[in-house]
Amino acid sequence: MVGGNEDPDIFEYVFHSAKFSPHGANRTYYANPRVDTLIDQARAELDQNARKQMYAEVQRIVAEDLPYIDLWYFENVMVHTKRVRNLTLNPPGNYDFLKTAELMP
Questions:
Q1: pTM score, two decimals?
Q2: CA atoms of 73 and 1, how far apart (whole Å)
Q3: DSSP letter at 85?
Q4: Peptide bond into 105 cis (omega under 30)
Q5: Partners of 26 in the beta sheet?
Q6: How far apart are CA 20 and CA 27, in angstroms?
Q7: DSSP 71
Q8: What is the pLDDT of residues 49-105, one digit of tens each?
């Protein structure tokens, strides 16, 4: 899912029971009190290592509960001429890679 591979705060928007559509992207109406608690705690946590552990547990629970299953996987592909250099696709699939692009004569 786009956004899920940067800051894990996207889990609140997709898996928290307070984010049922139209208030968020929890379109499957997934509800797990433990997931809600972990997301709330992680969103308030300043210690990055503690946040990481909380979101890792969210991922484990969601992977077991399977509120939905993706039917396809987008692969990031880049096509360009040899004149364009210093391009590296990044995992989020956004356009930040253009910051380092160079057009050669």
A1: 0.67
A2: 9
A3: E
A4: no
A5: 20
A6: 6
A7: S
A8: 999 999 999 999 999 999 988 777 667 777 788 899 998 887 766 778 888 889 998
Please choose, from the candidates 61, 45, 55, the residue with its C-alpha nearest in 3D space to the C-alpha of residue 12.
Answer: 55
Hey, what are 87's tokens? 């391009």
- In a 3-state reduction of DSSP, which class is residue 33? helix
Distance CA(13)–CA(23), nearest Å, equals: 9
Task: Please identify which residue in the block is written with the tokens 């786009």.
Answer: 2
- Amino acid in the structure at residue 45: E
Residue 55 has a CB neighbour count (10 Å cut-off) of 20
DSSP string covering 16-44: -GGGBTTSSSBTT----HHHHHHHHHHHH
Read off the DSSP letter of residue 67: S
